[in-house]
Structure formats: C-alpha cells, structure tokens
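Translate structure to sequence.
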C-alpha cells in the first residue's frame, strides 16, 4: 500500500507540474485552436483577408454577400453562371415552415431579438427530416440557415410591433430582401448597397468567440443547428456582437461633440471600457471600421444623424490621442451602429444583423473543421487545495 500511495502522489505531482502558469492563457489569448483556410488577420498592420483577398479589395470590388458566402463554402469565387444559380437557390429557401412562423407568433414581444433568433434556430432542427450527415447535406443546412436568418429576425420584429410579416421577395438580393422584410418597403439601391457592405464586413473574422463556440459544439459531432445556436448565444454578449448596441447608447448619452473629451476622461479615470475601441487581434486601426466609416460619413450627409457622426469622429480623435500609443484604435462596432441607426433600424436589431452576416462564416468554419474533426477538450490550471483526505460527515 505505501508503494501504491507513493505512485499516486508521484502521478498527481506530475500532473500538477505540467499545468504551469506559463501554459495558462486567460481567454485563450494567443492560443492556436484550429487550422483554417478561410480568414486571416494581420493585427499589427491592420489587415484582414478573406481566403487571401484583402477586405478592401473585396468591398471596393463590389463583391456581394452572396459571392463571399459562396467563396467561404466552396473555396473559390463563383463565375457569372454559378452566381446566378446560387442566388436562385438562396431565394428559394428563404420561407420558413408555417409551424415555425406560428411559433414565432407565440414569443413574448418583450424578449430580445437574439433570444428569439437562438430559439428558432434550435426549433428548425426539429423540421429537418434528413438523417444524412454528409458534407453535401451539411452544406445544404448551412445555406438554408443563412438565408432564413433574415426571415426570422424580420418576422419577429414585425410581429412584436403587431404588424404582419412580409413574405421574402425572390427578386431581391440577400441584403435588400432583409430590409424589405423588416420595413415592408423595398430599399433604394444605395441603402441596399450599404447593408450589403456591412454584411460582407461582418461575415467572418477568424477564430472569434462565437466561431470558437460553434466549433466546440461541432467538435462533439453534434449537428449544425446546435453549433449555430451556440454561436448565436455567444454573439449576444456585449463584449462581442452586442458591442454595437452599446456604442450607440454611448453616443446618445454623450449627445454633443463638445462633451466627448469630458466623457472619455471620466470613463478612463473609472477604468470603464469605451465601447467601439480596442480589439484583441488588432494593434492598428480595424480595416472594417475604416471602410464602414466612409459609408457612415456619406449616409450622415443625407440624414439627420450627422450629429451622431460628428460625436463619433470626435470620440475617435480623442481616443486615438489618449490610447493610440497603447494600440487601442476604433473597431468595427464604432461605425456599424450608426449606419443601422441611420437606416431607422431599432438598436436591439443591431446584433441580430451581425448574426445574419456571421452565420455564413460560422457554418463555413464548422464544415471545414469537420473535415479533420477533433474534440475540443482543453486542460485547466488547478489552483485549489493540494490532495487531502476526505473527512466523514461526523468529523466535519
């Protein structure tokens, strides 16, 4: 027995010694969790690439959301004929099963749209009667989820306003159709283009929190719906997708460009996070923010929201002056909220729009990871008591 105890103690010591503080990375910062061909970030230079294509060229080259989704799912850009067939497939899958639409009507109007979206994604699994788990079947699920996200969000929003949901229009693009279903009116070309750009910029961003949570779920060989509902739940948090909601609330609270510096100084003194600034991956200006800023500028010149843009520009100027040397610059959330606000979109729909865009990225990562699947099961650095005897109840 003494020898057995000695061996057990030695094993415990070995395990404990291997879990050193040096191997612990809070939030998994800097830890490589998976291989991917989909998206890469050069944080020091402020560069983002979609399968090798600089994001600036993707956006300025007028690539549509449908084209970029095709790129992520198929590993290449479509030609004209392929794109037309793909758009046709998109439009045919937009309608939800009637039972699902009936369920949306039962949801409390007070629940957050992200809660509604997460719930309906789970519900859709019950209406998938295809038992196949082949790559082709999972790709079809990825496409169906992507095209139905806008329908879910728009239907819930209209129902909570006691309005009738709008049927999808097969002649409209993915972005334009969402705005049409949301407002009941077809958007002008400029507005549809801005929404399309915003969706392209939010489609993917390497191993972000929601993508990682989707992959963790998928790695158990669970189904696509479970993986994507995990992504939706993760995106809801204010440190991730919910940040653009927080940015707009902050801007409205400031109210005047002249109050910006006082607000920033007070927040920094209280160690309060300034929403819309800083990103774990970037030590330079987020390229997505730079692109969205120009669209926000143009839109502000045509709307009554120019004051908000002025506040945003001023807070950017102040923050870069005070925090730029620490690598804290604007991120994508700083300007996306303004753009949606200028379109008349309610604040609590901002994060669902993020999900509408990101679902193509989530599903593409899941499909890619399943090709060489390995269950995610990291270790933890144990910091509790050393091994000790368990006392009987009478001795406690």
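Result:
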């Amino acid at each position: 027995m003494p020898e057995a105890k000695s061996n057990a103690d030695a094993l415990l010591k070995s395990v404990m010694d291997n879990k050193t503080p040096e191997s612990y990375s809070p939030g998994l910062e800097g830890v490589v969790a998976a291989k991917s061909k989909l998206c890469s970030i050069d944080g020091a230079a402020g560069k983002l690439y979609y399968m090798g294509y600089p994001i600036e060229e993707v956006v300025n080259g007028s690539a549509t959301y449908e084209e970029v989704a095709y790129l992520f799912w198929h590993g290449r850009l479509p030609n004209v004929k392929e794109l037309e067939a793909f758009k046709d497939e998109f439009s045919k899958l937009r309608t939800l099963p009637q039972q699902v639409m009936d369920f949306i009507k039962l949801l409390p109007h007070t629940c957050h749209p992200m809660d509604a979206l997460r719930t309906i994604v789970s519900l859709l699994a019950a209406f998938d009667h295809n038992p196949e788990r082949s790559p082709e079947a999972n790709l079809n699920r990825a496409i169906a989820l992507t095209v139905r996200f806008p329908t879910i969000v728009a239907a819930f929003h209209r129902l909570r306003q006691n309005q009738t949901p709008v049927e999808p229009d097969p002649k409209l693009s993915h972005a334009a159709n969402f705005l049409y279903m949301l407002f009941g009116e077809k958007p002008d070309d400029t507005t549809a283009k801005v929404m399309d750009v915003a969706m392209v910029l939010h489609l993917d961003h390497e191993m972000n929190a929601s993508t990682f949570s989707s992959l963790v779920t998928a790695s158990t060989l669970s189904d696509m719906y479970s993986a994507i509902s995990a992504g939706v739940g993760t995106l809801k948090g204010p440190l991730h997708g919910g940040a653009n909601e927080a940015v707009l609330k902050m801007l409205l609270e400031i109210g005047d460009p002249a109050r910006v510096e006082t607000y920033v100084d007070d927040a920094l003194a209280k160690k309060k996070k300034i929403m819309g600034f800083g990103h774990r991956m970037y030590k330079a200006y987020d390229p997505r923010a730079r692109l969205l800023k120009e669209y926000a500028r143009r839109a502000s010149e045509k709307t009554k929201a120019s004051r908000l843009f002025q506040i945003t520009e001023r807070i950017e100027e102040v923050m870069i002056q005070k925090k730029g040397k620490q690598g804290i610059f604007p991120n994508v959330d700083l300007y996306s909220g303004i753009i949606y606000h200028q379109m008349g979109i309610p604040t609590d729909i901002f994060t669902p729009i993020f999900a509408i865009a990101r679902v193509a990225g989530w599903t593409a990562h899941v499909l890619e990871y399943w090709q060489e699947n390995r269950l995610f099961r990291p270790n933890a650095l144990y910091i509790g008591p050393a091994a000790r005897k368990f006392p009987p109840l009478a001795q406690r």
